[in-house]
C-alpha cells in the first residue's frame, strides 16, 4: 500500500501562488498605470488580463464543488488556457503543481491554498490542479476557454481522448490544516483505533 504524504494547506498570497498563476482579489492598486477608479460609491480596477490562448474564446462557467476528500490522488491540467476560480458561497482548497519539462505534474512543487470568498486564483496554462470544498457544496465562478470545456466534457462523458487537457494519477497526498475535509478512509480507521 502506497505511503500517504501530508500536504499542508496554506493561506493564499500573491507571492506564494506566483509559480502557479495569479491571486485575484488583491487590494486596490497604488500603481497609477493600472486602470482603476475609486469613489465613495464604488471602486474598480484591473486585476488580471485573462489569456484564453491563441484563437481561444473565454467562457464563464458556474461550478459546484462537492468533493471534500482530504486525500488527493489525481490532478488535471489544461494546456491552452489560463483558468480562474472564484469561490462565491464558501471557501475552497486549490491544490496545484507546476509541470515538468515533459508535461507531467512536478510533485516537488505540489502546494495547497485555502481560497476564501472574496478572493480567487487564476492558474497558468499547464498548471496541474484539483479543488476541494470546505463545506457540503461550494459554488464558484470559473473563467476558462470554451473549447477546453467542450473537450473535457466529451472526455469525461465518453472516455474519448482529451486534446486540451490531461488527468494524471499521483501518489496519495493527505491535505492537512483545514476544517471541513473528510480524512482518507485508512487514516480515519487509524484515528478510530487510537
Describe this entry's structure for a reader.
By secondary structure, the chain is mostly beta strands. It is built from three helices and 13 strands, in the order E-H-E-E-E-E-E-E-E-E-E-E-E-H-E-H. The protein has a six-stranded mixed sheet, covered by helices on one side. A five-stranded antiparallel sheet has the order 2-10-7-12-5. Strand 3 and strand 4 form a beta hairpin. It is globular, with a radius of gyration of 18 Å.
SSE pattern: EHEEEEEEEEEEEHEH
Query: If you average the pLDDT, what whole number results?
Result: 93
User: Compute the gyration radius: what is it?
Assistant: 18 Å
Strand content: 35-45%
Gross geometry: globular
**Uncertain spans, ≥5 residues at pLDDT below 50?**
188-194
Sequence of strands across the biggest β-sheet: 6-13-1-9-8-11
Largest sheet: 6 strands, mixed
Determine the N-to-C terminus distance. Answer: 20 Å
By DSSP, the count of extended strands is 13
Tally of alpha and pi helices: 3
- The assigned structural class equals mainly beta
How helix-rich are the residues, as a percent range?
10-25%
In short:
This protein is mainly beta and 194 residues long.
